[in-house]
Design brief:
binds manganese (II) ion, Indigoidine synthase fold, single chain, binds pseudouridine-5'-monophosphate, 14% strand, 48% helix
């Protein structure tokens, strides 16, 4: 499906050519760059992640909305805007038509990125950790739109589980209810984002990228609802955040968010930022190790899928 001519959704020339040729393409999100990582490291990371995809033999498509246009594949100047522009919005899927109408610019979350990637004809997407059900859900009903989008979008998302700031068991329950397929990559438990494992068991384990591609072919052969495939890929134990430090600083971060009344879209960036400072940067290194591993695995799945 070519959508090159569509004014709201614009693949770069490189991405459009790769898709037309059936070459492997990996979508990357931009919220992690604009709202998830501190400057100036975020721009280096944005470039590095694209390089990981290229080194693996695939084409990166970082996705963001610039001046109302959903760009699929950013050039160097556009990538810099995402990393440095102040006041850049955080856009979920529901925000996209408004951003288009008002010619706004914003970074896309997992929900908006999955949606746009699928529309552009990209099947594989890598991020750090998904959004999910927040702790205290019984009072706030804060469940990331990521989950709903994945329940109705045919995309394969490689991630290190969901962010450990969330209620992980409840998030897994919601994914089960919504019919989103999950496979652990060389693991029997759901990864814990900064941590190798959340301790929560998952039902399916795969060992190789080819198996992910085979599941995707199975999804298409069966038809039915256009659900996602989550490939849950843990950060290596050697690169995880010290679990004790994680639990202590996360407790502080949650208390600070409560005290300062942080809610809604601001809560995830607030907690991630608190963890970076509270662990003297160790959480950032674990986050980056997770994202790098996910981007590398997503590239291998994209190659297997393109065959
Ligand atoms: N992964 C990371 N860092 C991030 C995110 C993912 O390693 O900052 C972003 C994604 O864009 C995800 C968003 O969709 O956090 C979730 O935000 P919310 O909880 O407000 O839905
Ligand atoms: Mn939310």
């Amino acid at each position: 499906m070519r959508t090159t001519a569509h004014p709201i959704l614009q693949p770069s020339d490189e991405v459009a050519a790769a898709l037309a040729a059936g070459a492997p393409v990996v979508a990357l999100e931009s919220t992690i760059i604009s709202h998830g990582l501190p400057q100036p490291r975020n721009l280096e990371v944005a470039r590095e992640l694209e390089a990981v995809v290229r080194d693996a033999g695939a084409v990166p498509a970082t996705i963001a909305v610039l001046d109302g246009v959903a760009k699929v594949g950013l050039d160097e100047v556009e990538l810099e805007r995402i990393a440095t522009e102040s006041g850049l919005r955080k856009l979920g899927q529901r925000d996209l038509p408004v951003a288009a109408a008002l010619k706004a610019s914003g970074a896309t979350t997992v929900s908006a990125t999955s949606f746009l990637a699928a529309r552009a004809g990209i099947r594989i997407f890598a991020t750090g950790g998904l959004g999910g059900v927040h702790r205290g859900w019984t009072e706030e009903q804060d469940e990331s739109a990521d989950l709903d989008t994945l329940a109705r979008t045919r995309i394969t998302i490689v991630c290190a589980g969901v962010k450990s700031i969330l209620d992980v068991p409840s998030t897994l329950q919601r994914l089960e209810t919504r019919g989103v397929t999950i496979a652990g990559y060389q693991t029997d438990t759901f990864p814990g984002f900064y941590l190798h494992t959340s301790g929560e068991p998952i039902d399916w384990r795969i060992e190789a990228p080819e198996e992910a591609a085979a599941i995707m072919r199975g999804q298409d052969a069966l038809g039915g609802p256009e659900t996602a495939l989550i490939v849950a890929n843990p950060v290596p134990v050697a690169q995880q955040l010290d679990p004790e430090l994680h639990d202590r600083v996360l407790g502080e971060a949650l208390a600070a968010a409560e005290r300062e009344g942080v809610t809604g879209q601001a809560i995830t960036p607030f907690l991630l930022g608190y963890l970076v400072r509270g662990t003297a940067g160790a959480s950032l290194e674990a986050n980056l190790a997770a994202v790098r591993g996910n981007v590398a695995l997503a590239s291998r799945i994209a190659l297997a899928w393109a065959q």
